[in-house]
Amino acid sequence: xxxxxxxxxxxxxxxxxxxxxxxxxxxxxxxxxxxxxxxxxxxxxxxxxxxxxxxxxxxxxxxxxxxxxxxxxxxxxxxxxxxxxxxxxxxxxxxxxxxxxxxxxxxxxxxxxxxxxxxxxxxxxxxxxxxxxxxxxxxxxxxxxxxxxxxxxxxxxxxxxxxxxxxxxxxxx
Amino acid sequence: xxxxxxxxxxxxxxxxxxxxxxxxxxxxxxxxxxxxxxxxxxxxxxxxxxxxxxxxxxxxxxxxxxxxxxxxxxxxxxxxxxxxxxxxxxxxxxxxxxxxxxxxxxxxxxxxxxxxxxxxxxx
Lengths: 173, 123
What we know:
Number of strands of chain B: 0
Shape of chain B: flat
Structural class of chain B: mainly alpha
Structural class of chain A: alpha/beta
Radius of gyration of chain B: 24 Å
CATH architecture of chain A: 3-Layer(aba) Sandwich
Strand content of chain B: under 5%
Shape of chain A: elongated
Strand content of chain A: 15-25%
Largest sheet of chain A: 7 strands, mixed
CATH superfamily of the largest domain in chain B: Cytochrome C biogenesis protein
Distance between the termini of chain A: 69 Å
Oligomer: heterodimer
Radius of gyration of chain A: 22 Å
Distance between the termini of chain B: 86 Å
Helix content of chain A: 40-55%
Number of strands of chain A: 7
CATH superfamily of chain A: Glutaredoxin
Largest sheet of chain B: none
Number of helices of chain A: 6
CATH architecture of the largest domain in chain B: Orthogonal Bundle
Number of domains of chain A: 1
Helix content of chain B: 55-70%
């Protein structure tokens, strides 16, 4: 009786361990942070890319308009890959594209824009990367879709593709 | 001369208290950074990592400490942005209760087995 009980307990324990490890095997190793609970855009003051003047979040994001915030850098290769899609998206009048230049050399960033085209209605400078952290980003490129109430409704980690572009266009329609 | 000595003492005391505050802030910053996971180079803390993400986090933690935020407030800020995963020391909630309770259960279970075997041996 005692031996049986030990075997049952051992079996239950091993089954439990097996399930935990088996479930763990199917989990992805790369962690993608979820959109923060509040989803509201942070209040900030940064330098404008073109004028080098201070600009506040209220001036950048006005109500009653959809915005796309794209975090990019000239040293980031996937940013080059997604750039033609951003150029395509910039033709859509229902959304304004805001670029956030992440930890970049200003000279290189300007060269990047001059060579590949400027899809952004405004570009902000995030020289130390702290504004990107305030948005909950963790690398470049990263794209946020912000609705008319200044809330982040979608977050795309990595370069955008045709599928994401279609998704964005469906939402902002 | 007396006034000069007095001023010198005041300057030294102020200097030392500032140094002490700086040291306190550096220690707090180190403690926090060692308890934050780098999301780019997983397996490393932000303190050990040299990635862009880690250096941005280092900047923001420094900024928050200088603004007077407490350790808890900084963790809460990061948790809101990146979830529980970013903190090495997770809070007890529905996702982590197995993590917290299983060692205690195993401890009691093992203790009970040892206790029983000792009683049997005694008898």
